[in-house]
Amino acid sequence: VWVSLVDKEREWLKSRYGLNVREMPRDISFGAHTILQKDCLIVNNTLDDIRFKDNPLVLREPQVRFYLGYPLKIQGEFNIGTLSLMDHKPLDFNAVDLNIIHDLATTTEAELDIEHLSTDDLLTNLPNRQGFLVRAKKMIKRCKQYDKNIILLYFDMHSLNAINSDYGFEEGDKILQTFSDYLRHNFRVSDLVARIGGDKFCVLCPGMEKRHVSNVIQRLQKKLTQINVPIPIDFHMGMIEYDYVFHFSVGSLLEHIDKEIYHYKRVHQHTYAYAHNE
């Protein structure tokens, strides 16, 4: 049995019992099918189901024969993961069993809602500062394990105050949502995009080289200039490479670049600030 979250590339097992894996590629995961359902997905015998009979998880370890997956929602709307059960032999589930699963799923969804509210920004659906710190810590740990460099990009929207003042906070919220969407689509799936403050965003980019950053930012700026908005969306941007010795935590990295941006804004009007580790 496991509780998982499903993204574009993988099914990540948030908690598990009796299964010795932490994640699996989405293209072979049972969860990828489950999150497309409105209700339970029940496969009594995987060898009799054309969708799964050739699946590596069926043919090899853990040799799944029975699977039940319940799609988990946040805010009662969006399927983001699964409550899943599997067995090595075919099984039949009755109505009593399904009611128990439904109750367990409802409890799990409530816990996910609480977690989502504490780590995600409701306006933009991006991780908030706390959510960023939690996810970034895990990402940096993986990068260190595989000896990958990691770059943090920090965006400070200096046009937001003018938009709020001249056109109202509703228009300002639309601008924040638009900027969030463009950030999300401009970067890779593997990059971590977050809103860490009112008008402040950051992107953690594992394995990105510094020489590629300017092209990415220019592409973003070009797209933003094509948007029909009352005041152009403009920002200051800082960049810093994570140093596994110098930066003792993700929080220290954010604090470092935040100070650099603050001092930079006092003397410059536009876009780039580079933070260093000296």
Summed up, what is this model?
This protein is of the alpha+beta class.
How is this fold's topology laid out?
Layout: E1 2-6, E2 10-16, E3 23-25, H1 31-34, E4 41-43, H2 56-59, E5 66-74, E6 78-87, H3 95-119, H4 129-145, E7 150-157, H5 160-167, H6 169-186, E8 192-195, E9 200-206, H7 213-225, E10 235-241, H8 250-265, E11 271-274
Parallel strand pairs: 10-11
Antiparallel strand pairs: 1-2, 1-6, 2-3, 4-5, 5-6, 7-9, 7-10, 8-9
Helix pairs in contact: 5-6, 6-7
Description:
- α5 runs antiparallel to α6 and α6 packs across α7.
- The protein is α+β, with helices and mostly antiparallel strands and 278 residues long.
- The chain has 8 helices and 11 strands.
- β10, α8 and β11 form a beta-alpha-beta unit.
- The strands form 2 sheets. A 6-stranded antiparallel sheet has the order 3-2-1-6-5-4. The chain has a 5-stranded mixed sheet with strand order 8-9-7-10-11, with helices on both faces.
- It has 2 domains: 118 residues, GAF domain (Beta-Lactamase, 2-Layer Sandwich); 146 residues, Alpha-Beta Plaits (2-Layer Sandwich), CATH 3.30.70.
List descriptors:
single chain, 278 residues, alpha+beta, Beta-Lactamase, Alpha-Beta Plaits, 2 domains, six-stranded antiparallel β-sheet, five-stranded mixed β-sheet, 11 strands, 24% strand, disordered C terminus
> What is the fold-level CATH name, i.e. the topology of the largest domain?
Alpha-Beta Plaits
As residue ranges, the low-confidence spans are 272-278
CATH class of the largest domain: Alpha Beta
How many separate domains make up the residues? 2
Judged by helices, strands and strand pairing, the structural class is alpha+beta
N-C termini distance: 49 Å
The backbone outline, from C-alpha atoms, is elongated
Biggest sheet, spatial arrangement of strands: 3-2-1-6-5-4
Element string (H = helix, E = strand): EEEHEHEEHHEHHEEHEHE
Task: Please count the helical segments.
Answer: 8
CATH superfamily of the largest domain: Reverse transcriptase/Diguanylate cyclase domain
Report the β-strand fraction as a percent range. 15-25%
Fraction in helix: 25-40%
The whole-angstrom Rg is 22 Å
Main pleated-sheet profile: 6 strands, antiparallel
Mean pLDDT: 86
